[in-house]
Specification:
Blueprint: E1 2-3, E2 15-19, H1 21-30, E3 32-37, H2 67-78, E4 79-86, H3 92-98, E5 105-109, H4 111-117, E6 132-136, E7 138-140, E8 157-159, E9 167-173, H5 175-179, E10 189-192, H6 195-198, E11 201-204, H7 210-222, E12 229-231
Parallel strand pairs: 1-6, 7-8, 11-12
Antiparallel strand pairs: 2-4, 2-5, 3-4, 3-10, 4-9, 5-11, 6-9
Length: 241
């Protein structure tokens, strides 16, 4: 695993990934984690170097994308990304947004575990494995600043409005693979991880149905991970006196 732009990262920092239950169980079954194409994210500013103010009139001379913009659009297609949340504690907002309204599952890990657990990824068995890049996202006010970073580094910068995400990213660029004639999927790819190394703790969502609880427990038990299961603190009993 290579750090983007020689970042200094706390390799023991807690990282979280929130799943809907069926996706988590499939992850336990296969060990394969989905990396989305950078084109698939809802963030309309993904990879932008600046943002024009709302209702700003664009000069007609710039209506056609320049060569660098076209090249970056292809890099967005060729770059596959996995997003994690940096936090010392579970997040109610993340439960709501990414785990089916508190009904899913979360895992906690660290950059060190991610590095050790990631298995070499190859688009073809006979083709060399792709580099796995990692780093924390830096948030910038793109209304005020214009980024001057490499095209690959852009994936680790986002508009300040998204700073609540506290994102840590893993990414694989498949540009060299395509240049060597290997067909690259239009959308995401699955990357295999050693789950025993990757998973520090498994947290069950506060609204996880009992049937899903048993499904997750059974799947974790088969992998020897049942002792790492924890219940969300949001299910604790409040005291007022």
């Amino acid at each position: 695993m290579r750090l983007i732009s020689e970042q200094s990262i706390d390799m023991a920092e807690p990282l979280w990934r929130y799943f809907k239950t069926e996706r988590f169980v499939d992850f336990l079954r296969t060990g394969n984690l989905y990396f989305s194409s950078a084109r698939q994210f809802q963030d309309p500013f993904e990879g932008a170097v600046a943002i024009l103010p709302p209702r700003f009139t664009v000069d007609s001379r710039y209506s056609e994308p320049e060569h660098q913009e076209r090249a970056f659009e292809q890099l967005r297609r060729l770059t596959k990304i996995s997003c994690w949340h940096r936090a010392a504690y579970e997040s109610d907002a993340m439960w709501q947004l990414y785990a089916g309204q508190w009904k899913g599952v979360a895992i906690r890990t660290t950059p060190e575990r991610l590095k050790a657990a990631a298995k070499p990824f190859r688009l073809k068995p006979e083709y060399g494995h792709e580099d796995l890049w990692a780093g924390s996202v830096t948030y910038v006010d793109l209304l005020q600043a214009r980024l001057k970073v490499s095209m690959m580094d852009r994936f680790w910068y986002k508009h300040m409005a998204f700073s609540w995400e506290r994102e840590f990213r893993l990414a694989i660029s498949m540009r060299m693979a395509e240049e060597n004639g290997v067909a690259v999927p239009e959308y995401g790819v699955f990357v295999e991880f050693d789950l025993d190394i990757l998973v520090d703790k498994i947290y069950l969502g506060p609204s996880l149905p009992e049937s899903d609880f048993e499904t997750v427990r059974t799947a974790a038990t088969k992998l020897g991970l049942s002792e790492r299961i924890r219940i969300s603190s949001l299910l604790g009993t409040p005291r007022y006196t």
